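ugh ok fine here u go
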Amino acid sequence: MKAICFEPVAGAAGDMILAALFDLGADPVEVDRIIRSGGLDGFRIEFERHPDNHRLTCGYCNVVVEEHGHSHAHEHEHHHDHGHEHAHEHHEHDHEHEHHEHDHEHEHHEHDHEHEHHEHDHEHEHHEHEHEHEHEHTHEHHHRGLKEILAMIERSEASPRAKERSTAIFRRLGAAEAAVHGVDIEEVHFHEVGAVDSIVDIFGICIALDQLGIDQVYCSDFKVGCGTIRCAHGVIPVPAPATVKLLEGFPVERLDIRSELTTPTGAAVLTTLTAGDWRSLPMQVLKTGAGHGRREFAERPNMIRAFLVELTGTGLVQDSVAVLESDLDDESPEILGALLDALLAAGALDASYQAVQMKKNRPGTHLTVICRPDRAAALAELILTQTSTIGVRTTTARRYTLPRSQQTVTTPWGPVLCKRVERPDGPDLIPEYEACRTLAATAGVPLRRVMAAARAAGLEASAS
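structure:
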């Protein structure tokens, strides 16, 4: 099974990830064509390879957005939500500046576009939108909601897997923005400038993965920087709120570099696609690539490395998890149901209840939560806040997991998304419940028939 193993040397941004995939051999021209087939235009993808200041040859990708008779050399991603909060999708900003530094052709190389909630995924300098040119952009740009972006992806010529991956990333990014600003996900809007370059980055990454025949994605520890950034509501520390939300439950290392190293789009792509850390996987390295950001750091190369590998052996991955336990004897079913939802939404890997007999012959409920070790304290606090229990027990356990990915099978009523699990005796395709339920409702057939057809198609695909 082919996999990509990402190593964020100094963070991750959408353009850097895309550049690494181009460096591995994905075709920028074909990526451009497939993106345009969905109806998006007004952009061009520029890719080149050259050494950085550490004398390491890397791939550099720039999405140039063409509008109003000139081009914006987007080295960042602008995502805007309706609340005008800046999501700081930038990977090259110098937070000490408060003025735009762009030329008359409006090449936005390192400026701070404080439009209505930029997510600058590429390197630039962050500033507030307070001059006339910025106000013109605010008025002229069309806003795209999540539904419009997903519809654009769906009508493209991309493969089902590329569509599924990009849709999942946009949904996760939208959910993070919605959570940060306290709004419904359908109320989050992506401003046109940001939408163009972020769609190209996110959709382009998924198309490139498909071109390279990638079944699975892995990523080692995420990197975040330090310092502050200025947004519409003042000066806030890095990483940006959306990035923090997306990185919940994932291992993170803070570097002593005054820059926002992992951007919201970079975090959304990798946290959505990764199946975990790759460093204990048995593998054969087939090829390596590197994607560089526009900014140079003295401390280390500003790049993300990508290893194209063939997984060997059983593929078993061993890691550590925290196990939280508590006995509840006076909670209503409504409270218990809400708690389970809250735990899973807060990053629990699994959560379950078991009926138990407690002291004084009272029936009770035993709660078990499995999570990554860095989420244990937050989830324990959640349990202690939302229930009447006064204690939570914690232990550390080692576990083995199998590589997994997504695959679509065809049923008489349409495609169904399945989870592909690489078992030691061969792959196993498990239909996703929500995908089956949605298709059953749309087709007007019983859920059991859709699930049976999906399982049969999965068995056939696994055997072939």
